[in-house]
């Protein structure tokens, strides 16, 4: 069928298989153009189908030449209904990896469950023996707790008081005030259960017990800090509490992995347009101003540039990994530069529906958003009749 974007609120209901494949190819070409990375050879990516996880998988495979296993939760297409973008991305990734002679298998299901952990461990045992690197890049609004069976729902709320600030509807460009009511203690607890470090630690624990972690294995999860203007709703809000927990979990896992000389790190990444970040109020306005400034300064990066730099300049630079005072890897260093943040703060005051057209990069935001679903890529014929049912080689 001919597939067009169908927007509803912060999501797009359709995805384009050829466009998603183009997105994956572009990312692969970017990494290949930077040259080889002397890094991990057997990599598990949890949350491998979109955003930072997909970019990590691509960098592992096409930078390090690694065998990869990707875990994700995506919907396949059916007659007349497109798949979720992560499904098409993963189908394209596997095809490209196999064509390049690289091992790649995927596991589709709930990563929070014991069953998916067991399936993944069995696949590692059977095919790779062990892994050297585990990337933990899940972003989910809900988590079914594997031992209690309780379904926890995360919240994106400030703590302690109502938060009022500007936001933009990136579809219309309308800048308005948004007020978000403070979280209850239950909201905070639930968000920590969903997006904190417990599940990461459960994965590492299960893998260590099964003997599928190599000597000196490394694991990485992703965090965010961000600017003053989003602090109340992000870093000092419910999600920030979860990130505090995630960051603290790195130290616990490192201790747990001592016997095999393993290490757990959190990398603080740059704000980017992904399905997860588009749903957080205030963030889209911040991102549209940030993009404008970073592009002007020649320091803008997308997911693939971020992950490529993470591997090349931090993880496998051949020097001890540089960490901040809280033991975190910082790849948000360009976003957080004083001059960049000062300019964001200045533009933030001036931003209105009328002025944002000039001040911000709404066009860039919208384009990145469309790209998430495989739309807006050069070289893709969007008028062509395409098959919406695409299989992932290792799954079907
Ligand atoms: P994303 O939404 O693009 O990717 C999420 C991934 O998790 C997908 O592969 C999805 O299939 C998978 N997933 C979700 N629920 C699952 C489940 N129950 N079982 C298995 N797989 C599941 O998200 P994004 O933005 O790449 O986020 C990844 C991490 O990076 C998160 O920890 C996020 O907080 C962090 N981060 C994001 C930033 C941003 O601006 N987008 C900035 C800095 C950090
Ligand atoms: Na991801």
TrEMBL record:
It catalyses: a 2,3-saturated acyl-[ACP] + NAD(+) = a (2E)-enoyl-[ACP] + NADH + H(+); a 2,3-saturated acyl-CoA + NAD(+) = a (2E)-enoyl-CoA + NADH + H(+). It is an enzyme of class 1 (oxidoreductase). Residues 2-79 form the Trans-2-enoyl-CoA reductase-like NAD(P)H binding domain. The record marks 74 as: Plays an important role in discriminating NADH against NADPH. HAMAP family: FabV_reductase. The active site is at residue 234. Substrate binds at residue 224. Keywords: Fatty acid biosynthesis, Fatty acid metabolism, Lipid biosynthesis, Lipid metabolism, NAD, Oxidoreductase. InterPro entries: Eno_Rdtase_FAD-bd_dom, Enoyl-CoA_Rdtase_cat_dom, FabV-like_NADH_b, Trans-2-enoyl-CoA_reductase. Monomer. Belongs to the TER reductase family. Pfam families: Eno-Rase_FAD_bd, Eno-Rase_NADH_b, Enoyl_reductase. NCBIfam families: EnoyACPredFabV, PRK13656.1. This is Enoyl-[acyl-carrier-protein] reductase [NADH].
